[in-house]
Amino acid sequence: MNIHEYQAKALFEKYGVPVPKGAAATTPEEFVTALAQLPDGPTMVKSQIHAGGRGKGTFTDGFKGGVKFCKTKHEAKELAGKMLGNTLVTLQTGPAGRKVQTVYFTVASSIKKEYYLAILLDRASSKPVIVASTEGGVEIEKVAHETPEKITKVLVDPAYGLADYQVRELIFKLGFTGAEAKNAGKLIRNLWNCFWDTDAAMVEVNPLITTPEGEVLALDAKVSFDDNALYRHPEIVAYRDLDEE
Ligand code: ADP
Ligand code: MG
Question: Which of 63, 74, 122, 191 is most buried, taking the most CB atoms under 10 A from its CB?
Fold first, then answer.
């Protein structure tokens, strides 16, 4: 089962994984109440569908971009109106695309650098693996193909859990120092707790970013679950979106 970005980010917040403030809406009336929860200024409008590649996607009516930067909340409201009810085609949706039934407004962060971070089950060893890269915001398959040396993998022993030296290794490989290193260490540990406690099949943050202020934030969030683990997690079953399945 997949969940939407805005739901994955709510889960992240519960686990102390920092995300920019945001609010979701399913009707034009809700645009107003959602935007009222955000500060004035640069705002992103993000189509919520169970597929990636939204930023580079195109709607079937020709409108370009399922993720848009807006200078003002007013502009964000206008653009949300173009996305809601429209069908978004991305590299991952197939040619039919997906109808956007929810839009997510979120504070636009200033990005110093984009990274990639994911936790999933490694098929070969049946152990959780943390995958990290300094090349964020692009498809990890592309990085794996073109510059595999820029991907770090850390296998976690499920009996022991994530060790501190493994967190330090990830921080080192990503090149974080100072405040960034401290914040990234906390984020990695909290993301691990989120993955482990919820029995997730995968948590993926692409991009993970640093800001000029030294913050480390999850700008995108994809979380999926094995259906056979869901009976233990009614709080996650509540996120199910039958329109997407
Ligand atoms: P997708 O992976 O489906 O294209 P993302 O959430 O990764 O969607 O958004 C695409 C790009 O838009 C990101 O790589 C990032 O550069 C930018 N972006 C997304 N959210 C924000 C945000 N809150 N602030 C600034 N830029 C953002
Ligand atoms: Mg992304």
Answer: 191
What is the edge-to-edge ordering of all strands in the sheet holding 22-25? 22-25, 103-107, 43-47, 67-70
- Is 22 near ligand 1, meaning CB less than 6 Å away? no
Task: Tell which one of 44, 98, 205 to mutate to probe ligand 1, the residue whose CB is within 8 A of the most ligand atoms.
Answer: 44
pLDDT of residue 245 exceeding 90, the answer is no
CA dist 46 and 53 (Å) reads: 11
Tokens 């259906």 identify what position?
227
* pTM score of the predicted model: 0.97
Are the beta carbons of 5 and 222 closer than 8 angstroms? Answer: yes
Q: Which tokens is 114 given?
A: 């984009």
Q: How far is CA 14 from the centre of its chain?
A: 15
Q: Which of 6, 15, 116, 239 is catalytic?
A: 116
Q: How far apart are CA 132 and CA 153, in angstroms?
A: 7
Given 115, 135, 204, 239, the catalytic residue: 204
Which protein residues have their CB within 5 A of the ion that is ligand 2?
206, 220
pLDDT digits (tens, 9 = 90+) for 77-116: 999 999 999 999 999 999 999 999 999 999 999 999 999 9
Residue 205 has pLDDT above 90, yes or no: yes
Nearest to 65 by CA among 84, 85, 40, 46: 46
Q: Mean pLDDT, the chain, as a whole number?
A: 97
- At residue 75, does pLDDT exceed 90? yes
The pLDDT value given to residue 228: 87
Least Cα distance to 219 among 2, 5, 35 occurs for 5
Instruction: Assess whether the C-beta atom of 93 lies below 6 angstroms from ligand 1.
Output: no
116 belongs to the catalytic site: yes
